[in-house]
Design a protein that fits this description.
The structure holds 2 protein chains of 2 kinds.
Chain A: E1 7-9, E2 11-14, H1 21-24, H2 44-47, E3 70-73, H3 85-93, E4 97-100, H4 105-112, E5 117-120, H5 123-130, E6 136-139, E7 144-147, E8 150-153, H6 158-166, H7 170-175, H8 178-186
Parallel strand pairs in A: 2-3, 3-4, 4-5
Antiparallel strand pairs in A: 1-6, 6-7, 7-8
Chain B: H1 5-11, E1 14-18, E2 21-25, E3 28-31, H2 37-45, E4 56-59, H3 76-92, E5 95-97, H4 107-113, E6 122-125, E7 139-142, H5 145-154, E8 156-159, E9 163-170, H6 181-192, E10 200-205, H7 207-210, H8 214-222, E11 231-233, H9 238-244, H10 254-264, E12 275-280, E13 287-289, E14 297-299, H11 307-311, H12 315-328, E15 343-346, H13 354-364, E16 374-377, H14 382-390, H15 393-399, E17 402-404, E18 425-428, E19 443-446, H16 449-458
Parallel strand pairs in B: 3-4, 3-6, 4-5, 6-7, 9-10, 9-12, 10-11, 15-16, 15-18, 16-17, 18-19
Antiparallel strand pairs in B: 1-2, 2-8, 13-14
Helix pairs in contact in B: 2-5, 6-8, 13-16
The chains are: A alpha/beta, B alpha/beta.
C-alpha cells in the first residue's frame, strides 16, 4: 500500500446521515472479481439517472468538486454491508479522506486497508467544513485539519496511524508473529 | 474480577499484542463467492497459503439463482464469480458446499445447521450478517475482503477490543404466534437507532431472550449489525447444546465441551457492561418498516410518521426521513395497514430457517395469495428445504400460490435474478430496507414471516394478531 501523505483539496459536502454501503456501491456492481475500477460505480444510483446521464443536482457531479480528494458527510457513514467494494470505489474515485461525525465499524476498518483516512470530528465542525469553499488541508502526521485559517486536531489510534503513514502490509506484519500463533494453536484445538 | 461472556471469549482468543492492538485467533472462517475472490488473488500475488484450510468452509449463496438448479446460470458475470470460488477452494484446499451439495445454503444458515458454529468460538465471514452465529454464544463478526485475506493467511485478526452492551428483553411476549423474534429486534433497533450499537458487542439477555428457540435467537443476533454493533451474542444454554448435538461437524468430544461451556460461557454476577438498554417484551407488537433504514420502523397499529415527529429535533434525521418517504412513495399519516403491496419475500439469513417457514405456513389456513401479489418463499438451505418438504410445507405454500424455490440469498440483496422492479413494493422478511437493496427503485418493508404471509393473502399489511 502507498504511504499516506498530506492531502489538500476542496471538500465535497454530502450532508446526509446513515449513508449505507449499498448506496456507496449498489449491489449490481459487486460481481467483479478484481479490486480495481470501482470508482465509476461510486454512488451510482444517486449520480446517474436511468439513462446513465449525470444528475446535475447531486453534489459529486458539481464541476467545482471534480478535483476533490476529501468527502465531508453525516453520521454513521458506511453502515450496512461489509462490502470492501465501498472503500475501493471511494479510493478509485480519488477520495483519500472521509470526514464524518461517526462511522460504521466495518467500513471504518476497511478504509485503513485501502489507504483512506476516516476522520471522526464533532458535528459542529462538520457543519463549518461543509460550508468551506476554499481548500482544506489534512495532515495525518500532526493529526490536524486546516481550513479558513483555523487549525483543529483530530484523534486517531496510533497503530492505525502508523499503518497508513508507513503504508504497511498488515498481513506481513502479522506473519512476523507466526510462532506465537502456532503456540496458541497447540493449546487450543477447537 | 467478574467478566461478561464477551470478555471471556475475547480473552481466551488473545494471541499477542501488535502496536497496542490485539491479535485475536479465529476458530472458524466462512467464505462465499462475493467478498472472497480479491482475497484469494492477494494470496496468490504474495505467494501465501491458507494457514488453516481445515477451519475454513465455503459456499455460494449471494449470486445463486433460486429456480431450477439443473439450468445453467444465465448471468455470465455471476457464473464467473461462482466458478472463481470453485477454483479457489480447489487450489487452496477448502471444503466447498457447491450448488449441487445437499448442504448448500445461505452461509449463516448452514454454519449452525452443520455444527460448524460452536459456543465460545470466534467466527468471521466477509459478510456483515455473520453476527447471526452469536446466537450460540460465539463472537461472530463480519469483515471486509482485506481481513478475509488476513484470516486466510494468518487465521487471526488484528482488532481493538469492542465495548460491551447489555440489551435486556424482560417479560414475556403476548400473542406468541404473532409477535416474533423479528419484532423484538426491529423494536430494539427502532429505539436505539442504526448506530446505537456502534463499537460494541451486544449481549442479549432477559426472560424473553431465554425463552426464544435457536432459530429465533439467530434472527435477533442476525440484525445486531443493523443497530451498528460489531457483533451480538446470547449465552448458550440447554437449547443451544441440544441444537448442536450430533450435527455433521460437531466435535467428537462434544459432551466434554458442553461441560466446560456450561461452566464458563456465562456473564458473571456483578460484571459491568459499558452500556445498557432495557425493553419489555409485553410492550412489543408486530413491526413494519416504512423508511430506508431499519430504524425507520413503526408498530403495525401506527401511521407513517411525519419526518419532524420521527426526527425529534435532529435535522439530519429529519432530512433523511423526508428523502425516505419520497423514495418509498408514502405520505405521513397513512395507516400502516392501508399500505398495499405488490410482492412478498419470505427468506434470507434473517428469516429462512425451518421455524420461520412453519410459522409462515401456519398463517395460510387454506387461503390464497392476493391475486395482485407475487410471493416467493426461499428456504435458507438445502437442508431446510428438505425438512420443510418432509413436513409438506411446500404443498401448503404452493396451494396458496406462493412460489417454493431453491436455497440462496435471493431477493434480500438483488445480486441474482430475484429482484424487485422499479416502484414495486415488497413485504420482506429480510434485514435491510436501504434504497435499491432488493432492486433499483424497489421499495422494501421489513416484517416477520407471519406478517409477510398475512400481507400476501390480504394484499396489504394487517395486524396478524387478529388472525390467531
Amino acid at each position: 500500500m502507498e504511504k499516506f501523505s498530506k492531502v489538500s483539496s476542496t471538500a465535497i459536502p454530502l450532508d446526509r446521515a446513515n449513508i449505507d454501503t449499498d448506496q456507496i456501491v449498489p449491489k449490481q456492481f459487486l460481481k467483479l472479481v478484481q479490486r480495481t475500477g470501482f470508482g465509476k460505480f461510486l454512488f451510482h444510483d444517486w449520480r446517474f439517472d436511468q439513462g446513465g446521464q449525470q444528475k446535475p443536482d447531486f453534489v459529486l457531479n458539481d464541476p467545482k468538486y471534480s478535483n476533490s480528494h476529501i468527502l465531508v458527510t453525516g453520521e454513521n457513514f458506511g453502515c450496512g454491508s461489509s462490502r470492501e467494494h465501498a472503500a475501493w470505489a471511494l479510493k478509485d474515485y480519488g477520495l483519500d479522506v472521509i470526514i464524518a461525525p461517526s462511522f460504521a465499524d466495518i467500513f471504518y476498518n476497511n478504509c485503513f486497508k485501502n489507504g483512506i483516512l476516516p476522520i471522526q470530528i464533532p458535528r459542529n465542525i462538520i457543519g463549518e467544513l461543509m460550508h468551506t469553499v476554499s481548500k482544506i488541508e489534512v495532515d495525518l502526521e500532526h493529526q490536524t485539519i486546516k481550513y479558513d485559517s483555523k487549525i483543529i486536531q483530530f484523534a486517531i489510534d496510533d497503530g492505525r496511524k502508523k499503518t497508513l503513514l508507513e503504508g504497511l502490509d498488515d498481513i506481513a506484519v502479522t506473519l512476523q508473529y507466526q510462532e506465537k500463533i502456532a503456540l496458541y494453536e497447540k493449546s487450543h484445538t477447537l | 474480577m467478574p467478566q461478561t461472556l464477551f470478555e471471556k471469549v475475547w480473552n481466551s482468543h488473545k494471541v499477542t499484542e501488535i502496536d497496542g492492538r490485539t491479535l485475536i485467533y479465529i476458530d472458524r472462517h466462512l467464505v462465499h463467492e462475493v467478498t472472497s475472490p480479491q482475497a484469494f488473488d492477494g494470496l496468490r500475488l504474495n505467494k501465501r497459503k491458507v494457514r488453516r484450510p481445515d477451519l475454513t468452509f465455503a459456499t455460494m449463496d449471494h449470486n445463486v439463482p433460486t429456480n431450477n438448479r439443473s439450468l445453467p446460470i444465465v448471468d455470465q458475470i455471476s457464473a464467473i464469480q461462482i466458478k472463481t470460488l470453485e477454483t479457489n477452494c480447489k487450489e487452496f484446499g477448502i471444503e466447498l458446499f457447491d450448488l449441487h451439495s445437499p448442504y448448500q445454503g445461505i452461509v449463516h444458515v448452514i454454519g449452525p445447521e452443520l455444527g460448524i458454529t460452536l459456543p465460545g468460538t470466534t467466527i468471521v465471514c466477509g459478510d456483515s450478517h455473520t453476527s447471526t452465529h452469536g446466537a450460540f454464544g460465539a463472537f461472530a463478526l463480519g469483515i471486509g475482503t482485506s481481513d478475509v485475506e488476513h484470516v486466510l493467511a494468518t487465521q487471526c485478526l488484528v482488532m481493538d477490543k469492542p465495548k460491551t452492551f447489555e440489551i435486556r428483553v424482560d417479560g414475556k411476549r403476548k400473542h406468541r404466534h404473532a409477535v416474533t423474534a423479528k419484532d423484538i429486534i426491529l423494536s430494539i433497533i427502532k429505539r436505539i437507532g442504526t448506530a446505537g450499537g456502534t463499537g460494541t458487542v451486544i449481549e442479549y439477555r432477559g426472560e424473553a431472550i431465554s425463552d426464544l428457540s435457536m432459530d429465533e435467537r439467530m434472527t435477533v443476533c442476525n440484525m445486531s449489525i443493523e443497530a451498528g454493533a460489531r457483533a451480538g451474542l446470547i449465552a448458550p444454554d440447554a437449547k443451544t447444546f441440544d441444537y448442536l448435538k450430533g450435527r455433521k461437524y460437531t466435535p467428537k468430544n462434544y459432551d466434554e465441551l458442553v461441560e466446560s461451556w456450561k461452566a464458563n460461557l456465562v456473564t458473571d454476577n456483578g460484571a459491568k457492561f459499558d452500556k445498557v438498554f432495557t425493553i419489555n417484551a409485553n410492550d412489543i407488537v408486530p413491526q413494519v418498516s416504512w423508511g430506508t433504514n431499519p430504524a425507520m420502523t413503526s408498530d403495525v397499529t401506527d401511521m407513517v410518521p411525519h419526518p419532524s415527529e420521527y426526527a425529534k429535533g435532529n435535522k439530519s434525521e429529519e432530512d433523511a426521513a423526508k428523502k425516505a418517504l419520497e423514495y418509498m412513495d408514502l405520505k405521513p399519516g397513512t395507516q400502516i395497514t392501508d399500505i398495499k403491496i405488490d410482492r412478498v419475500f419470505i427468506g434470507s439469513c434473517t428469516n429462512a430457517r425451518l421455524q420461520d417457514l412453519i410459522e409462515a405456513a401456519d398463517v395460510i389456513h387454506g387461503r390464497k395469495a392476493s391475486p395482485n401479489v407475487r410471493v416467493m418463499v426461499v428456504p435458507g438451505s438445502q437442508q431446510v428445504k428438505k425438512q420443510a418438504e418432509e413436513m409438506g410445507l411446500d404443498k401448503i405454500f404452493q396451494d396458496a400460490n406462493f412460489e417454493w424455490r431453491e436455497s440462496g440469498c435471493s431477493m434480500c440483496l438483488g445480486m441474482n435474478p430475484d429482484i424487485l422492479l422499479r416502484g414495486e413494493r415488497c413485504a420482506s422478511t429480510s434485514n435491510r430496507n436501504f434504497e435499491g437493496r432488493q432492486g433499483t427503485g424497489g421499495r422494501t418493508h421489513l416484517v416477520s414471516p407471519v406478517m409477510a404471509a398475512a400481507a400476501a393473502i390480504a394484499g396489504h399489511f394487517v395486524d396478524v394478531r387478529e388472525w390467531f
